[in-house]
Design brief:
The protein is an alpha/beta fold. It has one domain: Aldolase class I (TIM Barrel). It has twelve helices and eight strands. Helix 1 packs across helix 2, helix 2 runs parallel beside helix 3 and helix 3 packs parallel to helix 4. The radius of gyration is 18 Å and the shape is globular.
Amino acid sequence: MMQPLNCEMVTAIVTPFTAEGRLDTPALERLVEHLIATGSDGILVNGSTGESPTVSKVEKIEALKIVKRVIGSRDVKLIAGTGTNDTQSTIELSKASLDVGVDALLVVVPYYNKPSQKGMLAHYGALAQAVDSPIIIYNIPGRSVVNMLPETMATLAERYPNIIGVKQSNPDMDQVSDIRRKTADTFQIWCGDDSLTVPFMALGAIGVFSVASHVTGNLIRDMVKAFKQGDTRKALDLHLRQMDIFKELFFLPNPTVVKACLAKMGIIEGHLRLPLVPPDADEMLRIDQLMKQIQALQPQKTLS
């Protein structure tokens, strides 16, 4: 049986681009250091927050190599987003990512072609038999249109020991309960939406694949840690303090807002790839207000 993946705050990292549209290696290196310093114990490369539909296979492998090099010997898990809406392409990208030395694969439910539950079983089954690596299902009906049912997850986990868990980006809390009761305790659940992390953990999730951790990682780390230690009052307080930030980061298509925030922090430039477009002047004013909220939550440094 595959070992569980011991990470509780995984950042779904953005992909920094230069003004000319190329992968920005120095910015990616700075960003990885920032994420590790603020508590990420896992980094997901080539997820939807990384604008994966617009990133070529060559660029995806290069980004993985950069992040792996920066992580080095530190105890931070490297996860590759390798899911597509074509099973053979998913297998090929997964194998290429594993050649880099990633710790696990995050594989989205195929989008656009709207597979049935039987189709999902066949898709993940083909991948699970093709690779010897931990696989995490990424269930996000908002992007995939279709929703993987808890029964399907349970069947996959029972048939294929290397399917170890799910990043659940469906806000239906009853479904989270069903996943937990229909799968073995070893099947790991991660929340896929920052604003639902604490409720998910109450239902058995071990942590979160986060976007907000780009800008409030230390607080999310403390929130998850507090809940795990039984201090639910502190976890709730940290959740409520960040709630507006969790929501505001998505007032434009992800990762538009978080990239703009990271640019204001001096870590990356905020360039996007079409069809995503940069914020206009009014939207930047709203992002300025968001940055004030983020800065207000950061611990103040005292003068010596």
